[in-house]
Design goal:
Elements lengths: L15 E4 L2 E4 L3 H5 L20 H5 L26 E3 L2 E4 L5 E4 L5 E4 L9 E7 L3 E8 L6
Parallel strand pairs: 6-8
Antiparallel strand pairs: 1-2, 3-7, 4-5, 5-6, 7-8
């Protein structure tokens, strides 16, 4: 299992494209739009091999070459649990006016009533595969 550092800004899947003897890794515009990354900044990039490639997944199983993928590995579970209390930093506000924080692996936590820059203590109330919903249990003292 790969250990993912807490300083991770973004996590996405993409294909590596060859163009004129160089290789390109295309960053989805949503990563910049959601302020996970900024244009004209330098980032460290880690490349992890995909467990299933598009080409091999189209071949019948009997024709596939021996696989190096780990059997019975489930997708990583969300990095938060219902009932968990933790400190977060609100990075932006969503379309519905709720605060949005990102925790490990860029996982999104939605916090109603929070504003960008707030650092409240929250309790995770509902956990889904891609997002969690939390309530503020202790407001950021700077926001008072």
């Amino acid at each position: 299992m790969v250990e993912i550092p807490s300083s991770l800004c973004s996590l996405f899947s993409t294909q590596i494209e060859e163009e004129d003897g160089t290789y390109l890794v295309e960053v989805p515009s949503s990563e910049v739009d959601n302020e996970a990354l900024s244009a004209n900044e330098t980032y460290r990039v880690a490349i992890l091999e995909s467990q299933v490639s598009t080409a091999s997944s189209m071949q019948p199983e009997s024709q596939q070459p021996p696989s190096r993928e780990i059997k019975n590995q489930s997708p990583s579970k969300p990095p938060v649990d219902e009932g968990e209390v933790r400190d977060v930093t609100i990075e932006t506000v969503g379309d519905q006016g709720d605060g949005i924080a990102k925790v490990e692996r860029g996982y999104v936590v939605i916090v109603p009533g929070a504003q960008p820059g707030d650092e409240p203590t929250v309790e995770i109330e509902q956990v889904q595969e891609n997002v969690a919903f939390a309530r503020i249990v202790d407001s950021d003292p700077r926001a008072l």
